[in-house]
Amino acid sequence: MKPETNRYRSLLAALLTVAMIAPTAAFDLDSDTPIKVTADNARLDDGQGIATYTGTVELEQGDTRLSADRVVLYRTEGGLSRIEASGTPARYRQPARDGEGETDARALNITWSATESRLTFEREAVIEQNGNLFRGNVIHYDTAGRVVTAEGGADTGEGGGRVEMVIQPRSADRRTDRQETDGSSESQ
């Protein structure tokens, strides 16, 4: 097989894995499930449509959760339009798309935009799911198109500021079965 074909297949496999790692639809405004917010402090500016929560802030909608030190909710006449969260780090969790495991994402800043159908993780951004990892300075996830883009950051001497992906083998079970049948298992 040509080296170009192998590189293409490797790139395709990596991109498919990124799609599996990425969160699904984030908060669902069409859902009948309300978004519940708890915090140490709250300030509501009804005229501007801005609610600011500080302290230990927790947002929940069904199994989707966001925790942060500070969360700002923006409302328009159409409803909730934007969520901005910051923390050390802020953390976003929801069940994985395939129903197995959980997507666990964290960053110093997390923004969800309903109008752009986008989740953005900024500064020290990490998304993990079932042992797979995606890390970058900024990670954008288009929830409608299910497209992930990432940007590296400045080279701080600790990792070179590049985007990093760790992709687990397809099936740990197949690997275990193969070890037991070929005699290379530790139990023998």
TrEMBL record:
Gene Ontology terms: cellular component: cell outer membrane; outer membrane-bounded periplasmic space
Region of interest: Disordered: 151-188
GO biological process: Gram-negative-bacterium-type cell outer membrane assembly; lipopolysaccharide transport
Keyword Signal attached: yes
Residue ranges of every copy of the Organic solvent tolerance-like N-terminal domain listed in the record: 36-143
Keywords, ordered alphabetically: Periplasm, Signal, Transport
Ranges annotated as biased composition (Basic and acidic residues): 171-181
GO MF annotation list: glycolipid transfer activity; lipopolysaccharide binding
Signal sequence interval, chain numbering: 1-26
Entry superkingdom: Bacteria
Subcellular location: Periplasm
Main location group: periplasm
Subunit structure: Component of the lipopolysaccharide transport and assembly complex.
Family: Belongs to the LptA family.
Function according to Swiss-Prot or TrEMBL: Involved in the assembly of lipopolysaccharide (LPS). Required for the translocation of LPS from the inner membrane to the outer membrane. May form a bridge between the inner membrane and the outer membrane, via interactions with LptC and LptD, thereby facilitating LPS transfer across the periplasm.
Name of the protein described by the UniProt record: Lipopolysaccharide export system protein LptA
Natural source organism: Marinobacter maroccanus
Annotated gene: lptA
